[in-house]
Amino acid sequence: MTTDAELLRRARTDVHAFRELYDRYAARVFTFHRRRARDVDAAHDLTAETFARAWESRKRFRDESGGSAGPWLFAIARHVLGTSVRRGRIEQAACARLGVLERLDREPATVEPTEAWLDEALAELPDDQQRALELRFVDDLAYADVAASLQTTPGAARVRVHRGLAALRDRLTREER
């Protein structure tokens, strides 16, 4: 059997070699993230981000574990998880300072928006937010797929969806008054 280290050496020029490494570790990395995030969608996003970072740094891999890439991959996974937690805390603190959390945590709207209202409100959003909402809720794509379609990171896709929803919620709340 080919070692992980050999696969990573070959992955410098052969995407199939990286795919084989992914197949070996994807379930374990997903389980690592699912246990810590306690959210399946977040675990999928974090797993995708882990392998994206591994792909980007594959040329810098040094075999320090007898041919195994496990310790290297899980170090990347821990870093991705830590970054995600820090980013979430920073975003939450920023939202709290701006008073956005209070607006988002309000009771949901008591009036259902009409389809015409929704079309009009969506048309007022920036194109990137419109597209992100469409991919996430109309096409029912996971954030990793939304990100791929928008050619961005899953985190950026989540931000676009969040901002779009916040703008729609804010408009609906203003019109209810």
Summarize the structure.
It contains 9 helices and no strands.
* Topology-level CATH name of the largest domain: Rna Polymerase Sigma Factor, Chain: A
Helix content: over 70%
CATH architecture call of the largest domain? Orthogonal Bundle
Helix run count = 9
| Count of distinct strands | 0
Query: Secondary-structure element order, as H and E?
Result: HHHHHHHHH
Structural class: mainly alpha
Q: Can you offer a commentary on this structure?
A:
This protein is an all-alpha fold. It folds into two domains: about 5-90, Rna Polymerase Sigma Factor, Chain: A (Orthogonal Bundle), CATH 1.10.1740; about 105-175, Arc Repressor Mutant, subunit A (Orthogonal Bundle). The chain is built from nine helices and no strands. It has helices at about 5-10, 15-35, 40-55, 70-100, 100-105, 115-125, 125-140, 145-150, 155-175. The chain is elongated and about 65 Å long. The N and C termini lie far apart (about 65 Å). Residues about 100-110 have low confidence and may be disordered.
